Amino acid sequence: QVQLVESGGGLVQPGGSLRLSCAVSGIIFRFYAMHWYHQAPGKERESVASISSDGATNYADSVKGRFTISRDNANNRVDLQMNSLKPEDTAVYYCRIPSVSWGQGTQVTVSS
After folding, report:
1. How far is residue 97 from each of residues 11, 45, 55, 65, 76, measured CA to CA in Å?
2. What rounded mean pLDDT belongs to the chain?
C-alpha cells in the first residue's frame, strides 16, 4: 500500500520560511516523479512544484525563486523549502505521485 505523509506545516509570519517534507512508503520511490500541490480556501488544488525521477525541477510562476523542491532517494522523501512566504501562500499543501496517490495534506498559514 502506497502511503505519503506530509509534515512541517504551521503558522509563519510574512517573509518567513518553512520546510515541508513528504515521507513515501510502499513504492520504489526513485522511479517516480513527485509533485507538491496547494489548495487555498475556496480555490482549486494547483501544482506548486515537481521533481522528476532524475532530479529535473519545475515550478509555478508564483513560487519561482522562493520555493525549492528536492528529493532524497535514500530516505524516500521529497521536501519543499519555502522562503519569503506571502499571505497568499496560505493553503493546505499536498504531495502527490501522479496517477498513484496523494498525501493527506499539511496546513501552511502565513499571517502576522
Report:
1. 26, 15, 14, 24, 12
2. 97
How far is 14 from 1, CA to CA, in rounded Å?
38
- 25 exposed, middle or buried (CB, 10 Å; 0-12, 13-18, 19+)? exposed
List pLDDT tens digits, range 73-89.
Answer: 999 999 999 999 999 99
- Rounded-to-integer distance, Cα 93 and Cα 103, Å: 9
Supply the DSSP string of 15-77, one letter for each residue. Answer: T--EEEEEEEESS-GGGS-EEEEEE-TTS--EEEEEE-TT--EEE-TTTTTTEEEEEETTTTE
How many Cβ atoms from other residues are within 10 Å of residue 90's Cβ?
17
Convert 55-83 to b/e letters by CB count within 10 Å (16 or more is b): eeeebeeebeeebbbebeeeebbbbbebe
